[in-house]
Design a protein that fits this description.
Layout: H1 11-35, E1 48-49, E2 52-53, H2 56-75, H3 79-100, H4 113-131, H5 138-149
Antiparallel strand pairs: 1-2
Helix pairs in contact: 1-2, 1-4, 2-3, 3-4
């Protein structure tokens, strides 16, 4: 993976951005659980949080995603890179699947267009954070620089 930088100078900023994405999912999920209390877990109704459609099921999933992202960010040591990249791909698949089913009975997470857009944007942010957050030894950084500069 010669294209993935090692010890990028802006790594702390990217790590903080990843933490903010995790915090967003956590807050969104908690607010969604509160707002959808009393409804069915996969209810398809007009529950909205921060302008996005949700239900108890997606709110619980958002809490789990937020906790996983925050745990990876806190632990670090390239675990955050792996967590951010894999969850970015999962969120892309989820967002595109919900976009495909948005006006059908298969919209189990009660997504709206705003939810799809936010999910896809946050997945791209997580992917970017994962690509620039890799940590390595001085030798690994030099090897990456050498591979990057070779034509």
């Amino acid at each position: 993976m010669a294209h993935t930088p090692v010890n990028h100078p802006a790594r702390p900023i990217y790590r903080a951005i990843g933490g903010l994405v995790g915090l967003y999912f956590l807050v969104f999920g908690v607010l969604g659980i509160i707002a959808s209390a009393g409804n069915d877990v996969l209810a398809q109704n007009d529950t909205r949080i921060l302008g996005q459609g949700t239900n108890t099921g997606y709110s619980l999933l958002a809490v789990l995603l937020g906790l996983a992202i925050l745990a990876g960010t806190v632990i670090g040591r390239n675990l955050d890179v792996m967590v951010n990249q894999w969850l970015a791909y999962v969120l892309m698949v989820l967002g595109l699947a919900e976009l495909a089913f948005i006006r059908t009975d298969a919209n189990i997470f009660n997504f709206s267009i705003a939810t799809v857009i936010v999910t896809l944007v946050l997945s791209q942010v997580l992917l970017m954070v994962g690509m620039y957050g890799k940590v390595g030894t001085h030798e690994e950084k030099e090897a990456w620089e050498k591979a990057r500069l070779v034509l």
